[in-house]
Amino acid sequence: xxxxFVAGNWKMNTTxxxxxxxxxxxxxxxxxxxxxDRVLCPPFISLAPxxxxxxxxSIRLCAQNMHFETKGAYTGEISPLMLGELCEFxxxxxxxxxxYFGETDEVVNRxxxxxxxxxLTPILCIGEKLEENEAGRTGEVLKRQxxxxxxxxxxxxxxxxxxxxxxAAEDLVVAYEPIWAIGTGKAATGEQAAxxxxxxxxVLAGLxxxxxxxxxxxxxGGSVTGxxxxxxxxxxxxxxxxxxxxxxxxxxxxAIVGQTAKIR
Length: 264
Ligand code: PEP
Description:
The chain is an alpha/beta fold. It has helices spanning about 15-30, 45-55, 80-85, 95-100, 105-115, 130-135, 140-150, 190-210, 210-215, 230-235, 250-264; strands at about 5-10, 35-40, 60-65, 90, 120-125, 175, 215-220, 240-245. It has one domain (about 5-264): Aldolase class I (TIM Barrel, Alpha-Beta Barrel), CATH 3.20.20.
């Protein structure tokens, strides 16, 4: 009942020219795959050119971050209002934002609210550090991150009422990304990820009710490749993947989306 979802987070990689080349290389072959939502998250400056290149394509665009204010004196920042013209999704709470840019749960909460108040659907990232995992604190950490990020947000809150065609809170996508698995080549096992995602869905059910929790897509992220995607998406609780490194290689990303379509 949940459409699988695969997003490629290019992080701070690709010039505009490289981004255009990569997307042109993948576009037609991705468009030929059915039954999976496919999303690309290039750097901010490539969103506008890719938006033009992708007119009529099934590939949807996502920003990697944003500010929570609509406009103002925030030098160097990008707002939900600006992004709303170019993309449908925004990654919020990525562990690299938390780790290198000091983003707290409170900031993530303000950003989730701002995205929904605009027209953007958040891909909300949560994940535990290695030491938290080893101390058996994964469940507690994820519950805190999710509860704080969604504080004050009801599942039915929506910006569609504003007439700007935005998302309802329950359309949000959650990405479970254990920090120890990101960019390390050491992915979680499918079993581990499925069990943790099951408990994340339980936390969502506590916040928004079981029916809504069953509709929210929850992805796994952390060293996903074409060679291991099957391990994750063969679990019915894992609705797809947030992919970093492997999304920068056309053949790998195509394999991940293609395998997801085949298995689900
Ligand atoms: C990410 O940064 O969201 C990620 C999952 O990266 P990688 O696939 O490279 O581990």
